[in-house]
Amino acid sequence: MSKTLVVLTIDYPDPLLDKELPYLAAAFDKVYVLYAIETSNRELAFKNIKPVKLFQNPDFPKTFRLVLKHFRFVVSVYLYTIIRKGNLSFYLKHYKSFIGYLLIEAERIQPLLRYISENKLNDAIFYDYWLVDSTLALIALKKRGVIKKAISRTHGFDLYDDRQFESRVPFLEYRVAHLDKIFTISRHGYDYLKNRVSPSLSGNIELSYLGVTTNFAKDPDKRVLGEYLVVSCSSMIPVKRIDKIIDSLRETTLNIRWVHFGDGPLRKSLEQAALTLPPNIQTSFYGHITNSQVLEFYGSNYVDLFISLSESEGLPVSMMEAISFGIPILATAVNGIPEIVTEKTGVLVNISVDEIEVCQALHHILSNGNLDRNEIRNFFRSNFDAKKNYESFAEKLNQLQLGSGA
Predict the structure, then answer these.
(1) What is this structure's pTM?
(2) Where are the alpha helices (DSSP H) in 221-266?
(3) Deepest in the core among 88, 168, 170, 300, taking most CB within 10 A?
(4) pLDDT tens digits, one per residue of 90-127
(5) What is the 3-state secondary structure (H, E, C) of 291-318?
């Protein structure tokens, strides 16, 4: 039997999924990647990976017509959800938002059905990279007997209620109950999801860390004496609290060059705020650059510290990349971050930390130099090496296709 995998995702190419695809390509004869938003026309190096832009967003001015079109689907998912304890009043109060979620996925059923039929993919494994994306559509096709196995990963926005518009991951119990497996990317996410659903569904949930390729060889020479290089890497959005990094740097007397990778709606205001930093702080905002450019920077510059004061994260790949180079991390102890920032790899601060406390932690790491960069790399190898983690994950998918993982 040909080993075939169908991966569904939101954007393509996706920097996270890109790290995993080479290992999936090695484990399967054919890999289809179905997506909604094309971010570039980059060609893949793997001949057995076929990307296809399959999905369109529904026309919401025609919402009533769409509800009638997908009436049975909408009713079945909604009824399953509202009979669960504590859901009735909430899902009725916010019915417009949640029906909107349903219609986005309902409109994906027919394109998927047609593509599966045209390419004879009924026996493939269907893998949604996000729990809130196309999983409801996959479940609908699985219930019809069109496909046999459907699994998903879950990361951050698609797992934690506080990251969603109505502070509730839509139809979470239904998704977990009807998928064959849900793989969380952190131990914290694993525990969180198990506590959010019925104990009878815990067997559907499994931990599977993401990973990055080892890019380090040796430490670059420290080129600027008397100056520390501090890096942050994230979207410029409120949840990342880059403004708190700026306010914390304002409190230090150390000579620091701060480099930020990433772009977003707050970029202009953050750049303006950074202009008010004292002369001992030099700043560089690189904006949106490729992942390979970030790694090239780490390989050619001695980075003293990676900093993140985000108020919500899954388990950031940006931190995995940092520790693969032996770079210590200063970060908030939220969600999965304590699984990557330990006493061996950095320093954690409380989510409610003030700027003075951040400054003290910064001084502790930079001035004491008591974190061994080789120990940090060893921790990376043991936990977040791409080859080990993704080959193990691909084997689990193969077992599901053979029927032993159902």
Answers:
(1) 0.89
(2) 242-249
(3) 170
(4) 999 999 899 988 999 999 999 999 999 999 999 999 99
(5) HHHHHHHHHHCCCCEEEECCCCCCCCHH
